[in-house]
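Lab notebook, bench 4. Still working through the backlog of constructs that have no structural model yet. Next entry is a single chain of 214 residues. Request: give me the structure tokens for it.
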Amino acid sequence: MLVYRTRLHRRLMEESEKELFAAIASRQDRWANVAEAVAYDFRKFSAWEARHARLLEPIAAAGRRRASIGILRRAETALIHRRALFETLREQRIRGEARDRLFRLFYGPRDFRNSVLAEHFQYQLAATSSVTVVRLSTVCNDPAGSHLLARYERAYQKYFWAYCQWQLNENPLLSDMLRLTMQSTKFLANRLKEQFVAGRDVRMHGARPTHLHG
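Model written out:
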């Protein structure tokens, strides 16, 4: 049984679960199928519930709106990072030896099958939490958050794919070009992340929103 530290912690969790099942029912969210696989599997749902509650706890404890939004945004970027490997494998259709090399890069000499299962499980949990992002942004009174997060996600995806290409490359003539591409995309992604998490876009007038209190 989950232990909630504050009323806001409980509310954030309740809103997350409400959004999760609404997304499954509507089929509109890009992660709806993944979320359904987690929601209707007791072991997976229990793991997600515990992890998501830990994700939300510092947001609820922050108190002030800017601090809460900053922590929420940092958590949202972490979900993007957790999804990155599996999404890149799927979207770039990486198969065979290239896929095996990437798993060795991220998991070391661990058994390949166990590595794939572990990565897919982590992806499922992160994607399920990602379903709730828009709703949490609303509860935390961060209307611009989803738009800015989408910008960072696109930038991070470009960086991560550039990094994978650099690691997979076997042509010495392409090495410098791929390394420079990786570095430039990393620089842009880091800059967007810093701006996003800092929350300089957050307007502070009317700064005690009812969303964060009670």
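Notes after review: The chain is about 75% helix and 0% strand. Confidence is low (pLDDT under 50) at residues 205-214. Flag for follow-up if needed.
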